[in-house]
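Q: Two folds, back to back.
A: First:
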Amino acid sequence: MTSPPQAPPLGLVVVSAGISQPSSSRLLADRLALATERALTEAGREVVVEIVELRGHAQELVSSLLTGFSPDPLRSIVEATVAADALVAVSPIFNASYSGLFKLFFDVLERDSLAGMPVLIGATGGTKRHSLALDHAVRPLFAYLGAAVVPTAVFAAAEDWGRSTKGDPAAGLAARIERAGRELADAMVVRRRQPPDDPFTEPVAFEELLASAPGDENLDPL
């Protein structure tokens, strides 16, 4: 008896905009990715996770924004991001919003490249007062990009990184991480995303463009 074909592995890209080393944003991103991977494994799905730390690509991001061209290896990161089945995006909060480095990365992506993509958003900050930035800054950014942001967003303040004992704030953080990871995993399984078409994969020949242009019948070929 022939066994049914196994579903291809899902792709998850994890973007961290932390600027320090070690970074609490990277720590939160890793835990969100692990929770998502664990939920997918329980659902019988394989996932390939790619971690992107924007700190190491700051100069490339500025260059891409100024020139309109993404240098390597930024180009490969952008291609992996738009082709992924889902995205985890975590930023530190500065001045009540996401960091400039975080915004730079999503500014270099093509319009509609994240359309329909399940996204789990997270943020870190010194105090819980910064948690409002997830709903008034980070979530609207991905809504504008057309992404499907999962309901649970995860904010981690400095006090949340304690030991997970009863009555400890870290226990609440762990529960939020698990819930958010499961929501993202469910979204990935239910709706396998189709990456947007690349308009440059099948370019129209220059001769065809000239032939279809109105009013050029009397033009001499160059």
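A: Second:
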Amino acid sequence: MYRPPNQNLQDFIDGLDSFLVRISKGNKACYLMADWNLDLMKHHKHDKTSEFLDIMFSRAFFPLISRPTRITSSTASLIDNIFTNDVTNCAVSGLLFTDISDHLPIFSISNECQTSSRKTQWLTFRDKNANNVCKFKDELQTVNWSEVRESSDPSSAYDIFLS
């Protein structure tokens, strides 16, 4: 979304609140990405920004970006953000540092980590202690590697190695 900086803030906040009420009734995960043109870092100094955040929080939408998204030689502001109502999701979010715009691109990668519906997964690992390393070396010495060494074709040598 994009909120133009000259848009009437009260109209925007009222419209956003109505929109969030409709979304909340759907009881679905939602991500709202926008150039809000409200500096969230100055919410304590700007009543309308504070009201905007109060509405987002009261509708259970929380910001994923916490660093400035527009940086100039004299200012830094957090005007771009992603808000979500999906607090159980293990999302990774952040900024991309590039000079393609005067705003830093923002992103979020969703992991959907709902463990209750997943089957049990087994984790396999190797215990690399001194005793096991010695056993491994001993086992390697018992293998006849001559076929692998004598092969002139790397692909067939690899196939022999795997077998």
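Q: And?
A: Helices lie at 9-26, 47-58, 130-142, 146-150, 154-162.
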